[in-house]
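Q: Could you fold this chain for me?
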Amino acid sequence: MSTVTGHLSIALQLAEWGLPVMPLREGKGPMGNCRPCRNNTCGGRPNMKTPGPCACPAPCHAWAAATTDPTVLTSAAWAPAWRQAAAVAYHPGGAGVTVVDLDNPDAVAWARRTLPVTRAVATTRGEHWIYRGAMTSPNDVRPGMDIKSLMSYARWLGPGTGPMAQLPDVVRALAVKAPAAVRPTSRPVTAAAPVGGGACPHRSPAYLERGIAMAEQRIEDASDRIHRTVYRLFLAVLSVHGRCGCLTDTHIKRLFTAAQGRGESLRHCEDAWSNAAAALGM
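A: Sure. Below is the predicted structure, expressed as structure tokens.
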């Protein structure tokens, strides 16, 4: 079997499984734009918020060109790309999954200590951990660690081993931007921190501090659905930091301050905190 036939055969099998696929050239990069689409003058914007519009039949828009359609994959327009292909990639977000790309042994060790066990695929330098669920795709969320899901692609390296777990809040929280300054507030906070007593996962005060700061920033950056965002971030903080006793009333006050800065009332904050704690059995 030739290399071209082999890559296309793999792509067709993945497409049958529901994974949108695309060819990669040497160096693991996507195929370059064709002449009419050069520099995305056609309107295709695979690295921005929208992938098009573009009616180009060739696979020249990175993740936005990935498809499960065998007619497209075997078309004459895709044939030159398969002749150049050095590997096959897929669009994780398009398949409803997220790949945590762990690029070195230290990153893998951190994941084994911190993240829920899920399907793992060996890579040349580390591992891909695959979760069920999609999210944004930031790079460098930690040393040696990228997230590949929506508007991104991952190289196909095999099906991996182990069952696939649901995407956890601790992974979603890694996409939050750097901490912002805490807004002062004089409004009282009546919610209390959980008593705790469980094993402490923080290992250093910086871990807890980063988690709180990330939640603050995520709340402040929310463009809409603020009620849902506040509840989800409260739930994420409690799920990671709420059982060991390290979470204090001061931390809660910071979260409430961020929420109130986006227009949430104190009552809504208290209700969201109470509902999140109840959902986790605290």
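A (continued): The CA atoms of residues 23 and 81 lie 7 Å apart.
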